[in-house]
Task: structure prediction
Amino acid sequence: MTEQQVVTELHRTLVLCLDLGGTFAFALSGAMVGIRRRLDLFGVLLLAYAASTAGGVGRDVMIDTVPPVALRDWRYLAVSVAAGGLAFFCTGVVKKLRDPVRVMDAVGLAFFAVAGTQKALLYGAGPLGAALLGMMTGIGGGIVRDVLVREIPAVLRSEFYAIAALAGAACVVAGGLLRVPVLASAVVGGVVCFGLRMIGIRRGWQLPVAGTPH
Amino acid sequence: MTEQQVVTELHRTLVLCLDLGGTFAFALSGAMVGIRRRLDLFGVLLLAYAASTAGGVGRDVMIDTVPPVALRDWRYLAVSVAAGGLAFFCTGVVKKLRDPVRVMDAVGLAFFAVAGTQKALLYGAGPLGAALLGMMTGIGGGIVRDVLVREIPAVLRSEFYAIAALAGAACVVAGGLLRVPVLASAVVGGVVCFGLRMIGIRRGWQLPVAGTPH
Amino acid sequence: MTEQQVVTELHRTLVLCLDLGGTFAFALSGAMVGIRRRLDLFGVLLLAYAASTAGGVGRDVMIDTVPPVALRDWRYLAVSVAAGGLAFFCTGVVKKLRDPVRVMDAVGLAFFAVAGTQKALLYGAGPLGAALLGMMTGIGGGIVRDVLVREIPAVLRSEFYAIAALAGAACVVAGGLLRVPVLASAVVGGVVCFGLRMIGIRRGWQLPVAGTPH
Result:
């Protein structure tokens, strides 16, 4: 293999690992929401699967790598079912994590925002497209999860949610433009995204709200 | 035509018939939901069309046969409008079927799960991908129908819904691996899916619910 | 350039202008909905962006021009953010337009229905497919906007909404079949769509509602 091929191969492996990490985190968050809503076992697993794959499926459709990897590769299904089953049968343990839906959601957001941006770059999207696709990969699963249980998506209500995903994605795009090694820009992007989101939650940072129309 | 071409042609015809059958059933279910919600004529037709095409459109996008057949082929629109109009103008007759939304929904689920799996196999999806795409083709229309009228999708609440679609799809995939004639595996898959769903409704089978998180 | 190339180039430019006009209108409508729901700044911008791009993204996915232009071309994002920011910071001004969400929505509907149909024709969709894709481009953004804030989409409730989009799209398709210049058929289609929608609102035209099932 040439050096370029090795780099591309590493890039692919990185995307896979990030994707599976995000899948686990979002599947946990989806399952916890399903349990709260008292869905049965299969409903919980399905919500876990939907929350953990919707973002990546949307990304894959938009960069035309179909069928989406989450449907082709058994590991996505396995990770999602494992996380969903864990949440279902060990609800007590999972609950010990403080405010687990939100934390898991922030972890998934960071993993997916970075993975989505990296994959979009790998398949030739431009800088703007890659950043937007990364953001959408990050926020897509949570939107689908919330719409399915008839909640207004967290991303529309929460301080520093989509903006955290966009910041993380922008770091990865900047890293790509500056030819920083992909692992380094992935770490920076992920930390920025997770950090912004968690600080937003902790400090209750709020963006302004417009004066009510009269 | 060679024998292989004849088989492929039969396969395509089978997918078309199943697709149109599912379209009719889901269009009826969508129209009944729209009538219950007191939508006007065009709203009823639109909900019928959305319920009957969303699953197949999603499948076609994910196997990259675009524009989706439901948009290209006038028969899908015609069947959908016919079913919607029937439900709208002959509401009394349609209601004589016991619990018609659920029964039509189960019929559509079976037709679409089988058609979706067959078409995914025809276009080269692997066994896992084909089974998942078949399940999604089956459940997609009902999810969109329910989200549009702001209900939590039946698939998340109902005993043996998605699992019935997955079982039917798995039969078709197994039939493909064992080289069973496609018509035979379609019949078996459809009967398994419809049977599981109806038995689930009749007997009130429930999957377990996790202990409420405290 | 040959004459054919000049025509195609004009066609593309027309689609771009219509697309950006529709983007501005739907972004305003999405932002107004977000402000009413008291979303914060980023939530308002995100809802504006979702409302203004969802229809076109769906169209682009279905005619396989991916990544969707709304993600690739910075002008879509810029127009959407500008409209969202305008609505957010100048709420009073925007409100002076009578019933602004509905009017902006009708403008966006007309622009997108025409642009969607034109682009679908440009990429080789047949007459039926182009008309349906045009309708979906028009109504998609409003559906996503309403689902995200948990309202039943206006398109299912409002008199002459989707039907206006379909009528506008049909004019464009008819113009294409009759070899009318694209600009002319765009103007006619847009006026028909906007006109039908506004007349429907003003006069309170209602389509019939089915007798309640008993």
User: Anything to note?
Assistant: Residues 3-203 of chain C form one domain. Residues 25 and 108 of chain C are 5 Å apart (CA to CA). The interface with chain A takes residues 32, 34-44, 46-47, 57, 61, 64, 66-68, 71-72, 74, 77, 87-89, 91-92, 95, 147-150 of chain C (CB under 8 Å). The first helix of chain C runs from residue 3 to 36.
